[in-house]
Amino acid sequence: MFRKLGIVKEFLSVKNFRSKEALDAYQQEKLEDRLSSHGSVFYPNSRKLEDFPIINKKIFMENFEAINTVGIKKEEAFSVALASEESRNFSNKIGDISVGLSSGTSGSRGLFLVSEEESIRWAGYILKRMLPKPLLQQHKIAFFLRANSNLYESVNSRLIQFSFYDLLTPLEDHIELLNKTQPSILIAPAQVLRLLALSDRLEIYPKKIISVAEVLEEEDEVLIAQRFSQKVHQVYQCTEGFLAHTCEEGNLHLNEDRVYIEKEWIDKESGRFSPIITDFFRSSQPVIRYKLDDILVLEKEPCACGSVFTRIQKIEGRCDDILKVKDKKNESYLLFPDFVRRAIIRASDKVEEYAVEHKADGLHIYLQPLGLKDEVEKSLQKLYFEQGLEVLEHFYHPYQMGKLTDKRRRVKQL
């Protein structure tokens, strides 16, 4: 009962900011609260953000025991998280702390801790931001992901029926259950949504489609939207926090009432940056000045929804997906993954699947159907010419579908 009341209280407290001045004042207040009361022996005792070190996943995990404030040992947390992964029972806790294991896009394992209070706050917030209107309707949520969590299960209530669909189970095995339960909200990684959209057996009519966990590419967004006659929304959620969501207009906004985000510019002219995040409310495992390796593209135009939260044009990929190449002057050049993706897609509307790996000997292109390699070659050569780049040697291979539990990365710098 108290848990449900807490979720309702959080739900009702979430508001939209229409004034930049009001948002700035709110953020400053929350930032001061966070810095002065983080309770972690790892971080300095200071109210100045610049006194805190910029950290990354490696530093965060190396200092797991110093950063967390609930006295949980790294070995114990890994043991509980791995046991959950193996048993596929994700309800295990250490006391009242939920423990999760994230493989991450980079493949390195990360641990996250969530207290009961944090779980309640997260549930109330995400329900307010992502539920279709009218808000008090009953909903069935179908959620596809590699691993479940007490955090996700926390949204269950009289109005919300949450069902976890395990990506370790073949996708075809889930179709019958989806048809039977008729979810009103479908949440899955982009590659899973694409496969569901292409299924002739699937007969569901969700009111909202939400892409999570990996880059949503334009061609997939169009396909999914047409198949289900719905806009494709996005949630930008990682183990470090709930960072962004799409508004009713379908535009992506940073959750600046939950996180303070500094920008480390990759290319200011094009609006590309990596976020450095400070979470206002994470207390069991404080997240302060944590740099993500994601590439976000800033959208400068205001949104018709009226929110003053920063708009993001797209999440382009990871910094280590940027191809390191040479221009015609033999100078180093950063070729962003989106340029490569667009070159392949514009080669032919018959391209079904592809992946690109930049290795020491050149560009390895995995293509389905492989018979389109001449068209792709022509399009890539055009890209090199337009960007003034030295031509890379190309190697073409048949495309092979990876595991759905692995986050899809179309373009990789190896």
From TrEMBL:
This is Adenylate-forming enzyme. InterPro entries: ANL_N_sf, CapK_Type1_Caps_Biosynth, CHP02304_F390_synth-rel. It comes from the Bacteria.
